[in-house]
Amino acid sequence: MTSPLPPESVWDYPRPPRVEPVAHLIEIHTQDRCIARTQGAYRVLETSHPPVYYLPPQDIQMQYLCQNPRHSFCEWKGQAHYYDLHLGSQVIREVAWGYAQPTAAFRVLQDYLAFYAQKFERCLVAGEVVTPQPGEFYGGWITANLVGPFKGQPGSWGW
């Protein structure tokens, strides 16, 4: 499969991670609904991880999302909170996360949400359907232009 995106190695990404704007169209679809569609996303790049895309709330169908009580802490971005997806009587737990008060280096991500690709039927970057980052803990999106190996694969926990 070819990608409309230029080649990148996740091993060239920095640590600590950096955030950068994304000009490509980002889409999230499930059950014949477009949950999000934007050209105003950011991505976070970190050594050994595929990019994590953060979408602005104004481009997300927020009526389907409800914040749940779960929180976690990222040494780089601060305290994250999680969202469940509500589609009629169906609830899909912890499909997204975001930072209400990110650290100064990641302030642009305030109130933006990142989504776990494995929880949706289709997530796309520039029209390309992504593969979720391996492992249930991580939320990176893999496109055909990326070279790994990727954190999250068996045996990679200690990287």
Automatic annotation (TrEMBL):
DUF427 domain residues: 27-117
Coiled-coil intervals, chain numbering: none
Gene3D superfamilies: Domain of unknown function (DUF427)
Origin superkingdom: Bacteria
Source organism per UniProt: Gloeomargarita lithophora Alchichica-D10
Database matches in PANTHER family: DUF427 DOMAIN-CONTAINING PROTEIN, SLR0655 PROTEIN
Protein's UniProt name: DUF427 domain-containing protein
